[in-house]
Amino acid sequence: MKTVYFVRHGESVHNAAGRFNELDTPLSERRTKQAEEIAERASALPIELIVASTLKRAQQTATIVAERLGVKSESSKFFVEGLQASRLLGKEVNSSEILEAIKDYHGNFTVAGYRFEDGENFDDLKTRALSALAYLEERGEENILVITHGFFMWIIAAAAVFGNELTAEECQGVIRGLDLMENTGLTVLTHGAPSNKAVGRLPTLWQLKVWNDHAHLG
């Protein structure tokens, strides 16, 4: 059985300031401690490999965790944040411009082919999430820690539960039904676990075991 521990990056400068993250937004100085706390927690897990989003805030988090665990860290574009319209990056999250854009984006998320400006749409996100899960399946390691991002973790969870048949409506339901992961929150997926007796021993692929566990933050 393969176990993948997903961690949202530590708080970024823009998270702290209430702004949309830009591609290379770094961790905030006072919240680098979050990365140290998840590193301490992860030290009790049998992690064999760390895979991190290529974005700076994830890379910085991965460096802290890798140094604490003494394991190899690799980078993958599969796990970057869902790409938003470029004109919104760095803007205040509560500004009228952002609020209107979010309303437009989520209001049309299930419309076939809909895309908000130059950002990723549902089809892009689904394809990337399924590719990310396939990449993890193919890795030889059985215990992997992935440093990724809040919005994209919703897509990963939806793709894990529904697989190739995932629809935009199902994905939106997951987004509405699960809290946004806290910075350094922990989510656990397993692959190849024994069949669930409660559903007549149906074969299982990915299973969502834990969502947004942030007990290490106090």
From TrEMBL:
SUPFAM superfamilies: Phosphoglycerate mutase-like (SSF53254). Coiled coil: none annotated. Pfam families: His_Phos_1. GO terms for cellular component: cytoplasm. Substrate binds at residues 8-15, 57. One of its GO terms (molecular function) is phosphatase activity. InterPro entries: His_Pase_superF_clade-1, His_PPase_superfam, PGM_Phosphatase. This is Phosphoglycerate mutase.
